[in-house]
Design brief:
Mean pLDDT: 78
Shape: globular
Strand content: 5-15%
Largest sheet: 5 strands, antiparallel
Low-confidence stretches: 55-62
Helix content: 55-70%
Oligomer: single chain
Structural class: alpha+beta
Radius of gyration: 34 Å
Length: about 550
Amino acid sequence: MLSLAILKRQLVDKKLFSRLIVRKFVVGRNLNKSKSQFNLKRFVKGTFLGVTAGAIAYDGYNEFQVYGGVSRFLRSLKIAALISIDYSWHLYGLTDESEEYEQILKKIHLRSANRLLNGCLANGGLYIKIGQGVSAINHILPSEYTDTLKKLENECLPRRSDEVKRVFEIEFGKSPEELFAEFDYKPIAAASLAQVFRAKTKDGHDVAVKIQYIDLINRFSGDFATILCIQEIIKLIHKNYNFGWILRDLRKNLEQELDFVHEGKNSERCATELRKFDFIHVPTVEWNLTSKRVLTAEWIDGYKISDLNRIKKDNLDIADIDKKLFKVFSEQIFNTGFVHSDPHPGNLFIRKRQNGKPEIVLLDHGLYEHLTSSTRLSLCQFWEAIVLKDQAKMDKYAKELHVNDSNKLAEILMQRPIDMKRPTFTTRLTDEDIAYFQADAKRHFDVVLETLKQMPRNMLFVIRNLNTVRAIARHHGDPIDRPTVMAKYAQRCIYNTSNFNLTQKVKWIIRRIKFDFQLAKISLQFWFIRTYLDILKFFGRSSVDSKTILNYNPQ
């Protein structure tokens, strides 16, 4: 009995022990599982925080490129959406022939232009550069846009002062104090791509130092992709919008502008090709103080070509300045083919020479376009055919420039109406007469856009050059007939590139006499119409003067 009881007790103890073992194993496994889950969560959380902190630190080290890029994208997207909604909402149900439509449209143009202006200033860099380019497309865009965005020429925002030392350390391995005898850290100008500072070299020369924004190269591709993306979104909403091809064509030229060594070489080539003119000066480059992101050049004491007060104070002849300006760019367009593509007033300075005559200083040589000899010859011959009113030759040379509508091309280049047969002169100018003279943007817009798309791409910058120079002349009061000066230069270039025998020279002289006669006739006709319109305005028989009516924009 005792042994049986002991046996039973041992069996019970074994069961209890087994249960205890099982329970301990299960509980222990659950405890280990909970600890593992806790450790995994802590690991994931720690890894996430670590990666995030590392990404932020890396982005901070790289001037917050990612954060900045996202911010610029969202800001641009917001502006594009607001502009799109503004047009769609306020023009809904209105016909484009109504007077109300025109009034509302102008207000929307102005609101949209101000949104673009503020967005470009906030985003900086490439956005400002493209905004400046848009402001020069006054042969396509409404004046509300071009006039508003012109402010970008003067309102570019300066950057942090410590950028200067960092750029010099990257480019030269030295600080400005080590490279210059004097260096003023206060910028004298803040442009779209760079700031400009005044300094003195160790050999005593005063220089202007152009220093690229430190983050510009890194953000270029992202910003350009953002701009193209947004314009594609706009294109989906507004079917008539089609400017992406212009932006894509700009990319190559803008990339070249980021290389200041390239700009320095451009300036030297420009100086060489224009040395025939004693009234043009191009600042010399200090190559030992120049790199891809730093350009050091001769300091210029002058003022903008648009500063009429200074021009009058120096007793300089505005007509003489404009004639010189037209000759310089005619030389580039018709003869050398190496065309300065950004001649806005900030890049054209005036200074008075010792002989009392004006000297034009040509600055900022980052953006140039090349015209081939065949393109230049076709352009010269087309310009001559316009004056001679030879429609067959106009069509021929327009085709050589890949343009179908020769008359529209002529209006774009001459920037005034080609057909001057009307109006029927009366003692009062009616609204119908005024409408005839003024450019009808709605009717011509698509034709001009198609004409520009047909041209060789490098011709777009020639048109930009012409528009910018025309705007300067208009600001001066148009004292010189620009088309006449350029037409004469174009024909002279035809003669200089031809090898005539005696018979051909005789024919050329007759052709030249006919050309000069037609040119004088056109100029006289234009002057007569302008005087007639001003007389009507003076006697209250017209609501507008000649400048308003003949401020021709062939869009």
